[in-house]
Amino acid sequence: PWVPERVHGVHGALPDRYKVTVPIGGGCGLRQGEVFGISPDDVDEDAEKLRVERQIKIVRGKLVFGLPKHGKTREVPLPGEVRLAIKEHVEQFPPLKVTLPWGGPDGEPVTVRLLLHTRESTAIHRMYFNRHVWKPALREAGVAEPVRADGFHALRHFYASVLLDAGENIRALAEYLGHADP
Q1: pTM metric for this prediction
Q2: Strand partners, 109
Q3: Quick one: which H or E segment has residue 158?
């Protein structure tokens, strides 16, 4: 897993519009498509939970909304630092209503207020993000030759390692990560 210095380095190297992806990915353990599908409406401040109800994925070359992996929605603990990062992000980049088909290119259109969107007011395409946002941030953070293990998914590994190190129950961690089996 990444060390905290690398997580902070990548966070600092990202453009402001995308900085919140690191606290959500590394502080809540979400997959990249789940982070891109988060709405401010999914934040339950009173319960200190984040509902993971959708992801943005690519089906036949088109962006669509869909259920998280394994078709299961879930709630994850929402640390105060992540809640604050989301609040600050919303103040700087107001949520945008985005309509995408559900499940596939021919699916029923669904409109969601997305936390993250491009400056062109569109949902984020993971291939664009990885090539033009994530990899340059890795290089700026000192990752000379980024490899597959340095992808966005590394934030999930960081999250899991931090929770395990803090003594979290393996079953609870699997549930937070949306794993089918601990």
Answers
A1: 0.92
A2: 101
A3: helix 154-165
Tokens of 43: 């934040």
Residue 28 near residue 38, CB atoms below 8 Å:
no
pLDDT in tens, 7-34: 999 999 999 999 999 999 999 999 999 9
Is the distance from CB of 176 to CB of 166 less than 8 angstroms?
Answer: no
Q: Which two tokens stand for residue 7?
A: 């997580």
Query: Which amino acid makes up residue 90?
Result: V
According to DSSP, residue 71 is labeled: G
Beta-strand runs (E) in 67-143:
74-77, 96-101, 109-114
The amino acid that residue 176 corresponds to is Y
Q: How many CB atoms lie within 10 A of CB 80?
A: 10
The number of beta carbons lying within 10 Å of the beta carbon of residue 48 is 14
